[in-house]
Amino acid sequence: MDAIETESVTVSYDGVAAVADAGLSVREGELLALLGPSGSGKTTLLRAIAGFERPDSGTIRIAGREVVGPGTWVEPEHRRVGMVFQHGALFPHLTAAANVAFGATRERSGELLELVGLAHRARAFPHELSGGERQRVALARALAADPAVVLLDEPFASLDPALRESLRGEIADILRSAGATALLVTHDQAEALSLADRVAVMRAGSIEQIGAPDDVYLRPRSRWVAEFVGEADILPGTASGGIVQCELGPFPAATELDGAVEVVVRPEHVRLEPSRPDGQGTAIVLDQSSYGHDHVTRVRLPSGRVLRSRRLGFATWPDGSAVQVAVETPLGVLPAADRHGATAR
Ligand code: ADP
Ligand code: MG
Q1: Alpha carbon of 276 to those of 8, 81, 247, 322: distances in Å?
Q2: Distance, CA of 32 to CA of 39 (rounded, Å)
Q3: Which residue's alpha carbon is at the smallest distance from atom 26 of ligand 1?
Q4: Closest residue by CA, ligand 1 atom 20
Q5: Which ligand is nearest to the CA of 47?
Q6: Which ligand is nearest to the CA of 153?
Q7: Which helix (H) or strand (E) holds 30?
């Protein structure tokens, strides 16, 4: 039994679908990240699961119980969901302990503050807490009523980057040690990939792909997912019998595609080496950008296509250098965008 199941859920505002035929399942005990660009319908789907939006159609089950369906509607307070919003939304006139106790006994409230590492701040009011502390209190409060699932809507978005990174690790640890099932909404790819057991990628109201972080990253199902979840350069190629041929050479690929394909090249899989004396297969360095811990080199391939290479450390190739391009597999393979030949099975 899954903790959350949505089937063909559609939610519209003024006749325009914000969520369109969305199917999603969250397994018990997992942390699933719902990842998508701003406006893709993440908050709306979360609110529909919580009971704050009424779908036009579709079914939602929480812990095996139908809460939305033809002829079924369960009020939000009876759905056994805990919510954490972008801004903690704590009661400003209540202490941290009282905020948590709002949904629990005093004893349980003490345990939960301990769980989120804030037992010593029990008597503080929200304005006396840092942004990160407020979010941890909000999580303790969401856990207080012993929910079947915790829904978190961009809970780190209002924090500065350094704090965001440490808090998201802490929140994931807390959720795991509480044995909670969580659905975390984010537009941040790194956040989704680093925290979640599985990632559901949402695009224009629908779930485009769902899978383990590595799976989504290394085997994107569409060009859109490839380009949204990380950096990607796309090269045309041909697949046959598990071998894909493209400008970078032949390489094995776990694909059943046959015919024209698109090869997804992640910049960190591209290595540049000194060019061969005969100049065969040479690429030309266009420019380099340094990011401190790594740098990106753009090269022009013999075909004229531009490819990026992301490597650790500082830039080394002068602009205009002739280099040899090597790639580390596995590379993602997609059916070609045009209609010539590729057959997906
Ligand atoms: P996300 O959380 O992925 O950024 P939202 O679910 O907030 O996306 O929004 C999805 C779409 O629905 C957007 O086009 C947004 O403008 C629209 N929308 C969201 N809430 C409302 C609302 N209360 N009334 C009308 N349109 C809305
Ligand atoms: Mg949102």
Answers
A1: 55, 61, 17, 9
A2: 19
A3: 13
A4: 44
A5: 1
A6: 2
A7: none
C-alpha span between 143 and 150 (Å, rounded): 7
Ligand 1 center–CA 206 separation, angstroms = 13
Provide the residue type at 244 as one letter: V
Q: Report whether residue 52 contacts ligand 1, using a CB cutoff of 6 Å.
A: no
> Do strands 57-62 and 65-69 pair parallel, antiparallel, or not at all (unpaired)?
antiparallel
Query: Ligand 1 pocket check: which of 6, 11, 12, 13 to mutate, most ligand atoms within 8 Å of Cβ?
Result: 13
pTM above 0.85, yes or no: yes
Please list the residues that pair with 151 across neighbouring strands.
83, 183
CA Rg, the chain, in Å? Answer: 24
DSSP-based three-state secondary structure for 208: strand
Cα of 129 vs its chain's centroid, Å: 28
Q: Check: CB of residue 205 under 8 Å from CB of residue 20.
A: yes
Given a contact cutoff of 8 angstroms between Cβ atoms, the answer to whether 302 and 283 are in contact is yes
The answer to whether the CB of 43 is under 6 A from ligand 1 is yes
Q: Record the tokens describing residue 259, joined without a space.
A: 């015919």
Phi, psi of 70 (to 5 degrees): -55, 115
C-beta of 13 in contact with ligand 1 (< 6 A): yes
Q: What is the pLDDT along the chain (345 residues), one digit of tens a residue?
A: 899 999 999 999 999 999 999 999 999 999 999 999 999 999 999 999 999 999 999 999 999 999 999 999 999 999 999 999 887 689 999 999 999 998 777 788 899 999 999 999 999 999 999 989 999 999 999 999 889 999 999 998 888 888 888 889 999 999 999 999 999 999 999 999 999 999 999 999 999 999 999 999 999 999 999 999 999 999 999 999 889 999 999 998 878 889 999 999 999 999 999 987 776 668 999 999 999 899 999 999 999 999 999 999 988 899 999 999 999 877 889 988 754 444 443
In this structure, the dihedral spanned by the alpha carbons of residues 326, 331, 333 and 337, taken in order and rounded to 10 degrees, is: -60
Q: Is the peptide bond prior to 330 cis by the omega test (within 30 degrees of 0)?
A: yes
